[in-house]
Amino acid sequence: NEDLKGLYSALLISFNEDGSINEQGIREIIRHNIDKMKVDGLYVGGSTGENFLLSTDEKKRIFEIAKDEAKSDIKLIAQVGSMNVYEAIELAKFTTDLGYDAISAVTPFYYKFSFEEIKEYYEMIINSVDNRLIVYSIPFLTGVNINVEQFGELFKNEKIIGVKFTAADFYLLERVRKAYPEHLIYAGFDEMMLSASVLNVDGAIGSTFNLNGIRARKIVELVKEGKIDEARELQHITNDFITDVLNNGLYSTLKTCLELQGVHAGYSRRPMKSASEAQKQRAKEIYEKYLK
Ligand code: HMN
């Protein structure tokens, strides 16, 4: 599974003001990621893609657009997870047929599922397709925690090849790294890339790479070269940027910054708020400070 290592942007999605998908805008965001951010891949249908606000048909259309625009130039991972496991299976089949390199699925949330139920969910999804699956663990949004032994239970299925680890628990990250050296671990919090890289993760998947991809890659490279002081300096700048972005509204600020580069990143999908005039003004300052 070496081929899947690397830096992935969690793809932002452009919407029109009425909430419909802006295909041209999505294509521009993808091109920007490939041509300017030089990412190794895209994570399509994630949180950043406002995926959980969309219909099945809209999700499918976005998967199609991403594949059509990116072709086989970079790796593509499709986040198909859903509270409706039958929708997840449908999307897993759909994206596998499109040629996605791997699928990923968020842990089922809202109800307090037992681990047994969560495991069955993953088995149902991955056993329906000839593909590889990356568990998407994001406890702060789902409330679902998976421990070291439970990861091992999931990894018993050889088609479940890794985890996207969006958590600040570096003790758990270290334990998972040690226990499963052959499985892929992707860092999910861009503000903790340096620390995750020191633990030897296999890659990272993040929203801010849509804009800060070059700097993020540099952090990973510096850590590999053992230049920790330099890596830390870059993480400091990165985190000044991320802190300002989070304070101003995460996805809407990233979108406004893209707009400032001529990429039509558009509106957010309701009930997600799009940037107000004041937030746009602040985003411009952030853009000029960190990205120009
Ligand atoms: C996704 O599914 O869209 C991303 O992979 C999720 C990713 O972990 C991002 N998390 C969220 O947006 C909740 C991070 O890149 C995050 O946006 C960033 O670290 C700023 O906190």
Outline: globular
Question: Order of helices and strands, N to C?
Answer: EHEHEHEHEHHEHEHEHHHH
Number of domains: 1
Q: How many strand units?
A: 8
Based on the coordinates given, report the CATH architecture. Answer: Alpha-Beta Barrel
**Strand composition percent:** 5-15%
In CATH, what is the homologous superfamily?
Answer: Aldolase class I
Q: Taking strands numbered 1, 2, ... along the chain, how are they ordered across the largest sheet? A: 1-2-3-4-5-6-7-8
- Biggest sheet: strands, sense, closure? 8 strands, parallel, barrel
Q: What is the CATH top level name? A: Alpha Beta
What would you call the structural class?
alpha/beta
Low-confidence stretches: none
Distinct small-molecule ligands in the complex: 2,4,6,7,8,9-hexahydroxy-5-methylcarboxamido nonanoic acid
Could you say what the CATH topology is called?
A: TIM Barrel
- What is the arithmetic mean of pLDDT? 98
Describe it for me?
This protein is globular. The protein has one domain: Aldolase class I (TIM Barrel, Alpha-Beta Barrel). The protein starts with 5 loop residues before the first strand and ends with a helix. The chain has twelve helices and eight strands. It has 292 residues and is an alpha/beta fold. It has an eight-stranded parallel β-barrel, surrounded by four helices. The mean pLDDT is 98. Helix 1 (23-36) packs parallel to helix 9 (209-224) and helix 11 (250-259) crosses helix 12 (277-290). It is 49% helix and 13% strand. 2,4,6,7,8,9-hexahydroxy-5-methylcarboxamido nonanoic acid (HMN) is lined by residues 10, 43, 46-48, 166, 188-191, 205-208, 242, 246, 250.
